[in-house]
Amino acid sequence: MIEVQGLVKTYGSKRAVDGVSFRVNRGEILGFLGPNGAGKSTTMKMITGFLRPDAGTAVVDGHDVTREPLAVKRTIGYLPESAPAYGEMTAEEFLSFIAEARGFRRRPERLAVVNRAIGLTHLESVRTQTIETLSKGYKQRVGFAQALLHDPSVLVLDEPTDGLDPNQKNEVRALIKNMATEKAVILSTHILEEVEAICTRVIIISRGQLVIDETPAQFQARQ
Ligand code: ADP
Ligand code: ADP
């Protein structure tokens, strides 16, 4: 589903990403670990088509990111690190607004995708509340719901449980696990416990290069 081969991104004389290769299959949850500044965001931005690689390729569900960035954006659901803005909108207004921006122009169709995303993320009880009044855990679920609107086959999640309390973390992890059965998921994190709890594989990036690509069990055996 995601096939990354020799990705390179240079800023000035600095190689932020220096020849990164890996793949993620359907049903896999890949944990992407690394210290701050190691190159995680830059790698994820190249996979989602927001940043053009200097060298190498990323193919997502058969679409080359450089040649078909729009097709890739349609395939991917992206959960940004920060919670959704538009705090004065209700959860359903926000989702409807994003759905319209994504090309669901007809109202019945838009309603259908919004309802589906609300159902998947268990937001029914708060759908008419404004986003600013929601707890962090619910805000994060609204973020997930927007990532799921177009029924993507690949999910790219930036620090999905960062800042949540232990209960909310567990809820969001259960959500990710459920969704992963028919999708390929890549999530960046700096929480080791998260990798052990839900990831099927882990890669570690350091100074732009992958230093580990293995199963959580292999990874744990090393600690
Ligand atoms: P991570 O997500 O692992 O924290 P990043 O991918 O954000 O790491 O950054 C990798 C390196 O590239 C860092 O040294 C960062 O300062 C640098 N970098 C990222 N974006 C830019 C940019 N737009 N211009 C210059 N340097 C950048
Ligand atoms: P986001 O969190 O939205 O992914 P980032 O924190 O990676 O954004 O970066 C915010 C903006 O600053 C981006 O345009 C990015 O390219 C740029 N940037 C990130 N790191 C650096 C850096 N070290 N030097 C210059 N620009 C940077």
From TrEMBL:
Residues 2-223 form the ABC transporter domain. PROSITE patterns: ABC_TRANSPORTER_2. One of its GO terms (molecular function) is ATP binding. Pfam families: ABC_tran. Keywords: ATP-binding, Nucleotide-binding, Transport. InterPro entries: AAA+_ATPase, ABC_transporter-like_ATP-bd, P-loop_NTPase. Gene3D superfamilies: P-loop containing nucleotide triphosphate hydrolases. Belongs to the ABC transporter superfamily. PANTHER family: ABC TRANSPORTER, ATP-BINDING PROTEIN (PTHR43335:SF4). This is ATP-binding cassette domain-containing protein. It comes from Horticoccus luteus. The lineage of its organism: Bacteria, Pseudomonadati, Verrucomicrobiota, Opitutia, Opitutales.
